[in-house]
Amino acid sequence: MGNSNDLRSKSLWMDIEVAPDARPLEGDQACDVIIAGSGIAGISTGYELALKGLAVMIVDRGRIAGGITARTTAHLAPLCDDLTSEMIKLRGEEISRAFYESQAAAVDRIEAVQKREAIDCDFRRLDGYLFQALNTDSKIIDDELDAVRKVGAPVHRLVGVPLAHCGNQHALRYPRQATFHPLKYLKGLAEIIEAKGGVFYSETIVREIEERKDGSVAAKTDSGVITAKAAVVATNSPIVDTLALHTKMAPYRTYAMAFAIKRGAIPDALYWDTLDPYHYVRLQPGEGAADTLIVGGADHKSGEADDADLRFEALEAWARNLIPAAKNVTHRWSGQVLDTIDYAGFIGRNPGSQNIYVHTGDSGQGMTHGVAGSLINSALILGDTAKWQEVYEPTRKTPSGIGNFVRENLTAVKNFAEYLAPGELKSLDDLKPGQGAVVRQGLSKIAAYRGKDGALHARSAACTHIGCHLHWNSFETCWDCPCHGSQFAVDGTALNAPAVSALADVKTGD
Ligand code: FES
Fold first, then answer.
1. Angle at alpha carbon of residue 309, lines to 303 and 313, rounded to 5°
2. What's the CA gap between 121 and 45, in Å, rounded?
3. 468 CA to centre of ligand 1 in angstroms
4. N or C end of the chain: which has fewer CB within 10 A?
5. Which region holds residue 416: left if phi is over 0, alpha if psi is between -120 and 50, else beta?
6. 486 CA: nearest ligand 1 atom
């Protein structure tokens, strides 16, 4: 079967290798700051700290920058993607303005860094268009115009965007949005971190981070302990803090596909519509006269659907209707976002810790959240004032979001009841090659997959985080946990936090 990760989809960005010299940790090490997770949040934080002369070690369970960051669609849009009007309802104008300013500062930071460090990462400023979805009314556009003006962002109202059938659609144009190639950017940052003495460890799972009485921290792995003055946990869904943050977030799977397109067929801009979930469109420069068109959307709560082909068909039909110049499909992939109940991530001191910092809950804006978070956590570690800390404070109360909070967490409660339900298949013998399903065996449930070669892979269907019931993801050939975002390969390997341990082995007699 090869590496269990080989069965998963590949995004447009993944041919770039970030920190290719990274190796697994061997033996104990010490540094100033240990960072668990090498996505944009982890590497950007490492860069900010390395610039200030701190010794950083960045550790990832897989390859460097090979997790959820590698599955982004790379928009750098600083306004709340769940609508600023919605954010103001939950958090008020002042916090919503600070949210916008912090996200805009993240885009400014990427622009400044790639320029200063001469990182060739296709960064460019461009317009963003929020446009009225076909067959909907335009009130949402008026409400959003009002809200965006309140938070001080530049915005222009117009009728018509340069997509087919959209000449009469009401829209907002946001100037000075941006986009880039995320892994080219992170490759550039990683080289600078290494040049300043920072170290990357790949294929190394941080199982636990302990805060000692003297204030130091110890990150424990199977192959050694890294001792440091501070730790940053930037693992998409945090491996620390078993429930305090997890009950305030919910994992969603999102889908993206890339098409070949002739350069200039549509203006280089970010486009997204007013539906929920919304469709989005952006471009990536290609070779010669060709570009790549990226289209995404069709989100659903993780583990609550296994119909990726239908979702890609719907996305493709939507894209071909609005952009007839789209040619052949070159990539299809999916990623996972953690939505918080009030639209901003949780960034700052981990609740109850002094020297452990957390970054999670990027809510569909992972690139800007990642860099905004790096500015906040690096400032806190350095003992400086962290601007915008209040927006992202992990211990914040969310009184207006109680309705959402309860709704999102019903998933976990509902999920435990699934142990009582019958399995999806009566017997392991019913599994066809290439199929995965949950099969009941006595009192337990088995997460079973039969490889294309006929070999059976059977593991416990209980997530190793806190035991939720796993769901099969046939598109990514992995097991998804609907509760807090863990994913597992068919051989049981934990692919995504918060889980760190592999699924338990089971006896099948097969
Ligand atoms: Fe928490 Fe699975 S991710 S129980």
1. 125
2. 19
3. 5
4. C
5. alpha
6. 3
Assigned superfamily of 11-72+183-247+343-406: FAD/NAD(P)-binding domain (3.50.50.60)
Record the tokens describing residue 14, joined without a space.
């993944």
Alpha carbon distance 233, 60 (integer Å): 11
Q: Which CATH class is domain 121-180+248-340?
A: alpha beta
The C-alpha atoms of residue 481 and residue 411 are separated, in whole angstroms, by 10
Strand-pair partners of 30: 227
pLDDT band per the 50, 70, 90 thresholds, residue 341: confident
Q: Give the three-class secondary structure for 359.
A: strand
Mutate to test the pocket of ligand 1, among 465, 469, 471, 479 (most ligand atoms within 8 A of CB): 465
pLDDT of residue 406: 47
pLDDT at residue 386 tops 90:
yes
Nearest ligand 1 atom to the CA of 463 is: 2
CATH 3.30.530.80 fits domain 421-496: no
Tokens 């049981």 sit at which residue? Answer: 492
Give per-residue burial for 437-476: e unless 16+ CB within 10 Å, then b: bbbbbeeebbbbbbbeeeeebbbbbbbbbbebbbbbbebb
Q: 356 - beta bridge partners?
A: 231
Closest CA relative to residue 80, chosen from 72, 70, 88: 88
**Ligand 1 contact via 465 beta carbon (within 6 Å):** yes
Q: Is the CB of 485 under 6 A from ligand 1?
A: yes
* 452 in Cβ contact with 1 (< 8 Å): no
- Cα(353) to centroid of ligand 1, in Å? 22
Q: What is the pLDDT of residue 440?
A: 87
486 CB within 6 A, ligand 1: yes
Cβ of 500 closer than 6 Å to ligand 1, yes or no, is no
The structure tokens listed for 357 are 């910092």
Q: Each residue of 220-265: pLDDT tens digit?
A: 999 999 999 999 999 988 887 667 788 888 999 999 999 999 999 9
Tell me if 470 CB under 6 Å of ligand 1: no
Cα 181 to middle of ligand 1, angstroms = 31
Q: Ligand 1: does its nearest atom lie under 6 Å from the Cβ of 8?
A: no
Count Cα neighbours of 92 within 13 Å in the Cβ-side half-sphere.
7
Domain locations along the chain: 11-72+183-247+343-406, 121-180+248-340, 421-496
